[in-house]
Amino acid sequence: MHSGSVASRSTEPRIGNGQSPSIDAVSLAIIEQLQEDGRRPYAAIGKAVGLSEAAVRQRVQKLLDQGVMQIVAVTDPLTVGFRRQAMVGIRVEGDLDPVAEALTAMAECEYVVMTAGSFDLMVEVVCEDDDHLLEVINKRIRALPGVRSTESFVYLKLKKQTYMWGTR
Fold first, then answer.
1. pLDDT tens digits for range 12-36
2. CA pair distance 87, 69, nearest whole angstrom
3. What is the pTM (predicted TM-score) of this model?
């Protein structure tokens, strides 16, 4: 993993008023530059995309304000003491929203998505070890009102993880 990653959404992200901001080729090129190195200087980005440093700064701020992208430090869980990751499929009885909200409030749940298929929710969980994972699943997730069943998929080895959505 690297620091300063840019996680872009799609080329047509939603903003508060239901409108999609327009993303032109230059903005996509700026996003690609930041995906390669989230700390790349605006002057260097400007040279690569044909804009001034000030114009790049303005475009980046607009992309951030619109929620098109965010610039974050991405860590490798293994190097910071979290040796167990798993995807947990959850079947829910009744309304999904309260369960999804409770899961998003758990620090160990890095990714929560409502799905169609055999699971109602899929949750990526990052834990210190197997005991921590067992506590999260057994004592916290399964204890949530509405959770009918869970199925865990423990990660043995991560082969690919990218943050290049919407540009390539």
1. 333 344 455 678 999 999 999 998 8
2. 25
3. 0.67
